[in-house]
Design brief:
Helix content is 32%, strand content 25%. The chain is elongated. A hairpin with a 3-residue loop joins strand 4 (86-87) and strand 5 (91-93). It is an alpha+beta fold. 46% of the residues are buried. It folds into 2 domains: 7-169 and 283-363, Zn peptidases (Aminopeptidase, 3-Layer(aba) Sandwich), CATH 3.40.630; 171-280, Alpha-Beta Plaits (2-Layer Sandwich), CATH 3.30.70. The longest helix has 19 residues, at 345-363. It has helices at 7-13, 22-37, 101-118, 139-147, 196-208, 248-263, 287-300, 315-320, 345-363, and strands spanning 42-46, 54-58, 67-72, 86-87, 91-93, 124-129, 152-155, 165-169, 171-180, 184-185, 218-226, 232-233, 236-245, 271-280, 306-309, 324-326, 333-334, 342-344.
């Protein structure tokens, strides 16, 4: 099993790389770039003014299958909130240790292991984006554009408790309904107004009816805004809601129904508009993904455990663009997005060993059809 040297992991965890801390995110990216360039990769940097730069590190390309490793550079912790690296016998603690600086470290260390033995890496590239924790609103277009160049993708979010990789994730979209009514005095001119709050309440009830737990589809109206005061018919209201779904057919159904609900006026005189959209489309199991799993099991002589998750990652983006994708190649950890974030030391070693073996078989052309 891989002997775990934590020096490099500690170095990157001690850098604050909150999504809105461009300087810190870029330092994190520069460090990873340096490590990968030292083992033969070339760097393409996608400069951004307001967020961190995205980095695409490419090995030599030859004829044959191409593998993309996918990670993100940002965390959710603003400066001075959670910035400490520490460890005990079993766990490593720190911001991003499992989400996902730890996963990025696994990818790097496995690549370094291969390079140290073979002195050459080809057809394996690494994309690291800077805005995953805020929805990948900028990077999702880059990820989708690059997807066409790859046959397989390994995403280095945290593993499951038993080493599971992720074969499916729900799609997610965030939407806003702005409702225009007409204000009037609630005592003297009650019937002259068009109540935007009442319209919002009718729409809320119709939206949540779209939930289908059996199919894994949920609609959550998470925020309601509206009105002026108790004595005024509300002239404006706003609903903020999220959808999550497990397959494309369900997405199509709820998008059509949402449009019908928004376009219908339950309170005469109100007008509603819909904004927002799908942030990350669904990651669904596919024949190509199943073949990827089967090849890993055969070549590595294992039975790779898999799971499905309701949360999203950039795996959704790459998978929905037709690439055979597996997520969860990082270490096992818990407490992510909290000051209790930690990752298991043994899982680091296990993951590095397994990923190194997969890379070796890939470079030996054993993933070719």
């Amino acid at each position: 099993m891989q002997e775990l040297n934590l020096d490099k992991l500690k170095e990157i965890i001690n850098i604050n790389s909150w999504t809105k801390n461009k300087k810190g995110v870029d330092i994190n990216g520069d460090i990873f770039s340096k490590w990968l360039v030292e083992i033969g990769f070339s760097l393409t940097k996608y400069q951004r003014d307001d967020i961190g730069n995205h980095i695409h590190l490419k090995s030599k390309h030859k004829e044959g299958k191409k593998l993309l490793l996918l990670g993100h550079l940002d965390t959710v912790f603003p400066p001075d909130t959670f910035e400490d690296f520490r460890e005990d016998k079993e766990w490593i603690y720190g911001p991003g240790v499992c989400d996902m600086k730890g996963g990025n470290f696994v990818a790097y260390q496995a690549l370094k292991n291969i390079y140290d033995k073979q002195k050459e890496i080809f057809n394996i590239d690494l994309l690291m984006v800077s805005d995953e924790e805020t929805g990948s609103d900028d990077s999702k277009y880059l990820t989708a554009e690059l997807a066409k160049d790859y046959d397989y993708c390994m995403v280095f979010e945290a593993a499951g408790k038993n080493g599971e990789v992720v074969e499916a994730r729900k799609g997610v979209g965030t939407f806003f309904v702005n409702i225009e009514g007409k204000a009037s005095h609630a005592g003297n001119h009650y019937t002259d107004g068009h109540d935007a709050n009442a319209e919002a309440s009718f729409k809320l009830l119709e939206l949540i009816k779209l939930t289908n737990i059996q199919k894994g589809t949920t609609v959550n109206v998470g925020k309601i805004e509206g009105g002026i005061g108790a004595n005024t018919i509300s002239p404006k209201a706003k609903l903020t809601f999220e959808i999550r779904y497990t397959d494309v057919d369900e997405k199509d159904r709820i998008l059509e129904d949402i449009n019908n609900i928004v376009n219908k006026s339950y309170v005469n005189g109100t007008i509603s508009t819909l904004t927002g959209g799908i942030q990350r489309d669904v990651m669904q199991p596919s024949f190509e993904q199943k073949d990827f799993i089967n090849k890993i099991n055969l070549l590595c002589d294992i039975k790779l455990p898999t799971e499905r998750r309701g949360g999203v990652s950039d795996a959704n983006i790459i998978s929905s663009n037709g690439v055979a994708t597996l997520d969860g190649w990082g270490p096992y950890g818990d407490g992510d997005h909290t000051v209790n974030e930690r990752a298991n030391k043994e899982s680091f070693s296990q993951r590095i060993d397994l990923v190194t073996t997969i890379f070796k078989h890939f470079l030996d052309r054993e993933f070719e059809d």
